[in-house]
Amino acid sequence: MESKREGKDKFFIVTRGKARKGFARGCIGRVEAEMQKGELMGLLYGCGSSGGNPKSGGMVKMEDTYPLTCHQAQLLLFVSPSSKRLELLCNPQLFLAICVLSQDDLVVVKHKKGHQPGLVRNLMLIGKKENQGDLLMLGFEVEFVQESNQTVSSKKPAPLPLFSAADIVQVVPAYSVGLGPSWKDSHSEGLNRKAGSRINSMPNMGSCGRQVRDINHVDQSVTPPESLSHHTFDVGSLVEVTSNTGITVYGVIQWMGVLSENKIDWAGIELDYEVNNCSDGTYGGQRYFTCKGGRALFLPLTKCSPDGRFLCLRSEKETFKATNILPVTPLEEIDENVPPIPESEALSLLVGKMKGIQGHYNSCYLDATLFSLFSSSMTLDSVCHKPADTEQSISRSLRRDIVNCLRRQGFVPAESVMNFRKQLGCDTFVTEEKDPEEFITILIQRVLCMEPLLKLRSNNNTSQDAYTFQIILDKEQVTQTPTVQQLLDTSFLSCGLKFEEIPSCLMVQMPRFGKKYKMFPHIIPSTELDITDLLYNSPRECFLCGRLAEYECPQCLQDRKLQPGRVKQYCTTCKTQVHTHPSRKGHCPRALAVPAEVPADAPLPRHMMQLFAVLCIHTSHYVSFVKYGPGPRSWLFFDSMADRCGDDHSGYNIPEIRACPEVGDFLSQSEEELVWADPSQAGEPVRRLLCDSYMCLYQSTPMALYR
């Protein structure tokens, strides 16, 4: 195999693909040669104290890599484990800021269990260069700042702590912060650091093209850079707040109002990360909202500014585009099949702002549905397994530009979704609001070219196909706060329906009509659905004795003495005994179709389906809760239009994904605990899940793999 050209001083990081000869995701290598078949021959760098020594060589697909400068490679090489390197690359704005850090730049670093501001004092070369090809790692010496007087401690100098690029959570360049003369220089003489050498004069790698102002003339107040009169804030707005020390924190307004001791408007902000002296949503002993401890900041609304990370000059062509989004792999190169996001990588890839699917122009129904179906579930992955010569343009657009992009990069720009909407065959999908079930029907019929997901059989033995199932029942048939299991069982028995086969995916529409009317104020999504008793011609066990059942009684469903809400089927003996009771003499048990080859006392398996997503709607906006792994607390909340930057004509929506472990905590309670739980006392995510649920999505993993 001949090489096209030799590579010198070119570095890369492996971003995807299966491990080949040592090259796994997150590994850093040096290009030795570029081959004709789109592959790189390279040397692999390890990690740890000897991370800069190339250990082995191998081949890796060029499309599975992302190019790095030597400086970037040195910074990432000091980051461990390798998964954190990819996590850092997924925040391109922060990574680029870290790459151009200069001496005396102000940063916020992870330290112990919190975050600490400090000054970058030196770049440190880590390791020992023994051979010409060795690559020394780079770390940062950071001098912490005392909050009380904004000066460095006068105690006996100690070795400055060393941090990797992944330890830095925020960068505030020195030229933009009024540090003033109170910031003292550290006394670094005589420091002894093992296997490391200090770069005496830190290079100002970002100095080209930027004008540095006199730091003694910078206003140190907390006044926002622009007058509040130019900005209208609401609950949910993304804001930033800068302290007198120059530390800028970012967050979302969760509460606005007037505190009892003040006459001006205040804001309660949920910060992006924990900060000392912040609360969990309480102020002055009173709770205004709920969040993680150390993340709630209360201050006058006049101190808030729009989140500067999303402010930019936008042209008409950039209406859909997110700013400063640096994809790890160009969209056009993601043409291979990408598996669902594994649980171990979901949080680092997905959580944050500008994550998920970016909404635009009434697309929330489609955004929430696509994110729920394809981010972490493989139930409809048949779209990824069609032969290239039979794949339609719209299927290719869904697979390559949405599914693969979401799973590989954690973000799908609005223009990709708009291009997909234009191919759905009806102009109303481009401009109008729709409901998820309408889109799901088109998706399965036209895009995926799949057979209907549900095959149902009625009492008169007629078969019917469906894509989703609408719960139909009388309100009095179930409890005031029913579970989805109770709703499904009752609806099937009331309508005289059975599943002809186990569905790979079951999408259950809640009993609500339109966007306003809800039959029940709260519905509890069952984390598992037992559909054993809803299968046609499938062996079932007697409700009482456990032997093979031969009869089913719809009238016994709500019998208060026989576990109301549970499907009741009996063997011949138990059927006779149960219906000798005077209150049940009017019941009409129905004979079941029992397979002849099943012994009467044989153990019968239960057929379960797992909840993997819940679509919710409040007024006219769809969002979704998605389970991203088998762990009980592995839940995400997704909103494709969580905030907006700019106006309706030249702005764009900011999608956001949040981790919601509290949802898993609530749903993991026993059935008895859920019955007595008070949804109004639960946190906002749980309350929203129970109040606004529109469609619950369940999957049968074995059936999805089979089909």
From TrEMBL:
Keyword Membrane: yes
Keyword set includes Glycoprotein: no
SMART domains: CAP_GLY (SM01052)
Domain USP stretches: 355-679
SUPFAM superfamilies membership: Cap-Gly domain, Cysteine proteinases
Catalytic activity reported: Thiol-dependent hydrolysis of ester, thioester, amide, peptide and isopeptide bonds formed by the C-terminal Gly of ubiquitin (a 76-residue protein attached to proteins as an intracellular targeting signal)
InterPro entries: CAP-Gly_dom_sf (IPR036859), CAP-Gly_domain (IPR000938), Papain-like_cys_pep_sf (IPR038765), Peptidase_C19_UCH (IPR001394), USP (IPR028889), USP_CS (IPR018200)
Membrane topology classification: Peripheral membrane protein
Any GO BP: protein deubiquitination
GO MF assignments: cysteine-type deubiquitinase activity; metal ion binding
Positions of the CAP-Gly domain: 257-300
Annotated compartments: Cell membrane; Cytoplasm, Cytoskeleton, Cilium basal body; Cytoplasm, Cytoskeleton, Microtubule organizing center, Centrosome; Cytoplasm, Cytoskeleton, Spindle
Root EC class: hydrolase
Keywords: Cell membrane, Cell projection, Cytoplasm, Hydrolase, Immunity, Innate immunity, Membrane, Metal-binding, Microtubule, Phosphoprotein, Protease, Thiol protease, Ubl conjugation, Ubl conjugation pathway, Wnt signaling pathway, Zinc
A cellular-component GO term for this protein: spindle
Enzyme Commission number(s): 3.4.19.12
Superkingdom field: Eukaryota
Main location: membrane
Quaternary structure (record): Interacts (via CAP-Gly domain) with IKBKG/NEMO (via proline-rich C-terminal region). Interacts with TRAF2 and TRIP. Interacts with PLK1, DVL1, DVL3, MAVS, TBK1, IKKE and RIGI. Interacts (via CAP-Gly domain) with microtubules. Interacts with HDAC6 and BCL3. Interacts with MAP3K7. Identified in a complex with TRAF6 and SQSTM1. Interacts with OPTN and SQSTM1. Interacts with CEP350. Interacts with RNF31; the interaction is indirect and is mediated via SPATA2.
Similarity annotation: Belongs to the peptidase C19 family.
Name used for this protein in its record: Ubiquitin carboxyl-terminal hydrolase CYLD
